[in-house]
Amino acid sequence: MDSTLDIAHASPEELAALHADLRAQHRDLVAANLSLDLTRGKPAPAQLDLSSALLDLPGDGNYRAPDGTDARNYGGLTGLPEVRAVWGEVFNVPGAQLIEGGNSSLALMHDVVVNAVLHGTGDGELAWGGQQISFLCPVPGYDRHFTILEGLGITMIPVPLLADGPDMTVVKDLVAADPQIKGIWCIPKYSNPSGSVYSDEVVAELASMPTAATDFRIFWDNAYAVHHLTEEAVELADILATCEAAGNPERAYIFGSTSKITLAGSGLSFFGGSAKNVAWLQKFLFCRTIGPDKINELRHLAFLPDAAAVTDLMARHRAVIAPKFDMMLRILAENLAGSGVATWTTPKGGYFISLEVPDGCASRVVALAKEAGIALTPAGATFPYGKDPKDSNIRLAPTFPSLADLEKATQGLTVCVLLGAVEKQLT
Ligand code: PLP
User: Fold this and answer.
1) Which residues contact 208 (CB under 8 A, 6 or more apart)?
2) How far apart are the CA of 157 and the centre of ligand 1, in A?
3) Numbered ranges of CATH 3.90.1150.10 in the chain
4) What sections of the sequence does the record tag as coiled-coil (predicted)?
């Protein structure tokens, strides 16, 4: 295959030859009966092994919190102060303004939206339920954020996500004009799936922009706060302090978890915000639970006693997954760079690569890959309602497969991208 052929400018003869070649390669892939998966933004087993020590912690007899509390018993609605202090440093929130809330930050996000729908945000405004409200959704984005809103009948308005955050010209115009726009999803660092990192300017604008809704909220999902893939530990501006300085102290709800730091299904999750917002959530948490799993908190405290221990562990994660990203990026470049039909992101952290194929081709590429035994995230998943208006974005998740599987899957994927693009060019 001539991987340097510029498909958009190829002659009909060149295209026909390339098409025949790619069809043959695709047939070989189908015949190989592969079963490969690039869909899952999950830690690999080797990453989970890094936290195996947790399985033996806190250890027989070690059930006392630093202040003597018996962690086996009920109590302590917001989590152990020592745990909140460590993770407050990681997520840039004062420990007293951080709640530990169980094994899933997504569950906390769901709780927060549901509580605002049922009760309002505590600003003296109406509950969000009973009104037709909307959220801004930077795209491409995280499908599970969209699922929360869709389930509650909240209208989703896509806004473009650029390399340094959402397109603020679009965002500012929309929120200034429409009092029914109540929120925006933000994955501010190493965004899922594009790897975008919000610049200080974007953070400042989000914090200070005039909004027609007085109960407007930024849902700041800092899921990849410490998930660096390079030497550079990219910095993110302090959203809480920036909102406060801008005179909007209640604007940001902050979320994070240890899901991709320790054990994805058995970690700790966090909600942070202004003292007022924390008290607001606490009131509803009181109705839902007597308290979080303090034994799991103790286990994490023994394993990761301070932010420096978290940094150390993340360096070990990086050693496992950076070679996977490097391999995928190398194969994409070798096989697609000269074709003129695909672009992709080169993230400095996080779990994903975002691939753009020609308009109208993403579903076809995903279908071709499926025929070849390579599972890709469904086309459209990165957009509200599962609908990518251009049908061009595909989310790639290199972390879970072994290097050998990843190599086969990425080689196969590039055949499908080229075949999909040539088919389109021929129609
Ligand atoms: N937020 C983002 C942006 C994610 O990508 C993910 C998982 O992929 C989650 C949240 C899930 O977080 P948790 O495991 O804490 O529920």
Assistant:
1) 242, 246, 247, 248
2) 21
3) 7-47+311-426
4) none
Q: Give ligand 1 pocket residues (Cβ under 6 A).
A: 41, 104-106, 142, 187, 192, 221, 223, 257, 259, 269
Instruction: Give the nearest ligand 1 atom to 265 CA.
Output: 14
- For domain 76-305, the CATH class is alpha beta
Residue 167: count of CB within 10 angstroms of its CB: 15
DSSP letter assigned to residue 337: G
CATH code 3.40.640.10 region(s) in the chain: 76-305
Q: Which atom of ligand 1 is nearest to the CA of 257?
A: 15
Could you tell me how many residues make up the chain?
Answer: 427
What's the CA-to-centroid distance between 105 and ligand 1, angstroms?
A: 7
Contact by Cβ (8 Å): 185, 154 = no
Reported pTM: 0.97
Q: What's the CA-to-centroid distance between 318 and ligand 1, angstroms? A: 18
CA of 280 to the centre of ligand 1 (A): 23
Ligand 1: nearest atom to the Cα of 108:
16
ipTM value for the complex: 0.99
Q: Tens digit of pLDDT per residue, the chain (427 long)?
A: 445 689 989 999 999 999 999 999 999 999 999 999 999 899 999 999 999 999 999 999 999 999 999 999 999 999 999 999 999 999 999 999 999 999 999 999 999 999 999 999 998 889 999 899 999 999 999 999 999 999 999 999 999 999 999 999 999 999 999 999 999 999 999 999 999 999 999 999 999 999 999 999 999 999 999 999 999 999 999 999 999 999 999 999 999 999 999 999 999 999 999 999 999 999 999 999 999 999 999 999 999 999 999 999 999 999 999 999 999 999 999 999 999 999 999 999 999 999 999 999 999 999 999 999 999 999 999 999 999 999 999 999 999 999 999 999 999 999 999 999 999 999 8
Task: Return the ligand 1 atom nearest residue 106 CA.
Answer: 16
Domain 7-47+311-426, architecture per CATH: Alpha-Beta Complex (3.90)
Other CB atoms within 10 A of residue 359 CB: 12
Q: State in Å: Cα 378 to ligand 1 middle.
A: 18
